[in-house]
């Protein structure tokens, strides 16, 4: 009996597409897309783009060129990466060209979520661009085998396409080239630091005065007399991870603008949100005011396809790398134990430069020191250094 179920399911999908028994009636992209959606069960909830929106979406996201006959696009929103698109092109070569651009889109989009939303990045990594004749499809969903079976089943079989595999590794010889897709200019905190040292905030802009006021509140809460530099760093790091949240609104539009101030300490300290540059510059400023030597590294991640920023801290004369943003990932399991959460929020706390390379961070290595020390590495649960 169990052996009949796969055939029965495929038969239902073919029937939904008007496939077997009706070879003269080619399925529409909408029929194929609906069959793919149905293959995912009731848990899949996506929005179908209206005809007026599809052309702009296809051009903007898949760089669709030339003439296409018909299309269906189902998308989620925000930090939900699930997506199903089926496009009928005029020629087979056009469909193959679109498939290649869809694969580029998957890689680029994975870079947007890599490190920040691990579960969503995994879905993108497992997503596929498929082609059969004049049909090209992009599919990002939980049950990819069922989705692929639905796509090829609607087109009367055709077999599974070969796996595209992961993105190619950088050859390492070309040197670091920043993506420059996001403005990674560091916020100027000099006036704030001068006001902190002098105790006179009269000359600050309203924005900088608000930042300084929040810095005083945070440091009063986190830092006390007699703390070592490591203790100050840990307290500030943990406060930032607990307080802040990644600005998910950057995923709501292709420009990735997000909320105002998400790239500087104002958004994080006053609003409680930021992207990587907001986390890094906030950590930097708090460490500066706490008297701990710190720098901000502007680099990249996901094989230099996504702009990224993190920090380095000097303790007892030796440098360590800290990535507060990736220590605050979204989408964690609610059932995780306290120790699992603690490890998760200290994965990139005082690690070496080598560890950063191995976790897909890239940067101009001639512009910052190499971090090799491990004395103050802490995973969140082991014995604290210096105790």
From TrEMBL:
Gene3D superfamilies: 3.10.620.30. Residues 268-326 form the Transglutaminase-like domain. Residues 161-181 are annotated as: Disordered. GO terms for cellular component: cytoplasm. Pfam families: DUF4358 (PF14270), Transglut_core (PF01841). This is Transglutaminase-like domain-containing protein.
């Amino acid at each position: 009996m169990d052996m009949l179920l796969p055939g029965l399911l495929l038969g239902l999908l073919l029937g939904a597409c008007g496939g077997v028994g009706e070879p003269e009636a080619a399925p529409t992209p909408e029929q194929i897309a609906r069959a793919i959606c149905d293959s995912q069960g009731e848990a899949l909830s996506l929005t179908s783009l209206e005809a007026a929106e599809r052309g702009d979406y296809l051009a903007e996201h898949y760089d669709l060129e030339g003439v296409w006959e018909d299309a269906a696009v189902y998308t989620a929103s925000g930090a939900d990466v699930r997506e199903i698109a089926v496009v009928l092109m005029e020629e087979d070569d056009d469909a193959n060209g679109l498939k290649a651009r869809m694969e580029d889109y998957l890689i680029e989009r994975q870079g947007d979520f890599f490190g920040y939303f691990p579960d969503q990045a995994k879905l993108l990594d497992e997503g596929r661009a498929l082609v059969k004749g004049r049909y090209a499809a992009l599919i990002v969903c939980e049950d990819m085998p069922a989705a692929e079976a639905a796509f090829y089943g609607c087109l009367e079989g055709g077999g599974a396409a070969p796996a595209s595999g992961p993105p190619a590794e950088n050859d390492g010889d070309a040197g670091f080239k920043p993506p420059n897709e996001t403005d990674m200019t560091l916020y100027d905190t000099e006036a704030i630091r001068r006001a902190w040292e002098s105790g006179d905030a009269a000359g600050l802009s309203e924005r900088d005065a608000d930042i300084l006021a929040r810095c005083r509140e945070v440091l009063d809460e986190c830092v006390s007399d007699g703390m070592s530099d490591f203790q100050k760093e840990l307290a500030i790091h943990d406060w930032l991870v607990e307080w802040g949240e990644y600005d998910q609104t950057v995923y709501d539009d292709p420009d990735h603008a997000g909320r105002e101030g998400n790239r500087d300490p104002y958004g994080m300290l006053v609003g409680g949100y930021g992207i990587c540059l907001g986390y890094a510059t906030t950590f930097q400023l708090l460490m500066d005011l706490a008297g701990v030597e710190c720098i901000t590294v502007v680099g990249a991640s996901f094989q230099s396809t996504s702009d990224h920023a993190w920090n380095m801290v000097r303790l007892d004369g030796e440098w360590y790398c800290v990535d507060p943003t990736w220590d605050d990932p979204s989408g964690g399991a609610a059932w995780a134990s306290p120790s699992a959460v603690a490890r998760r929020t200290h994965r990139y706390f005082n690690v070496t430069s080598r560890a950063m390379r191995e976790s897909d961070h890239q940067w101009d290595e001639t512009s910052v020191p190499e971090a090799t020390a491990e004395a103050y590495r802490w995973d969140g649960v082991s014995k604290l250094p210096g105790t």
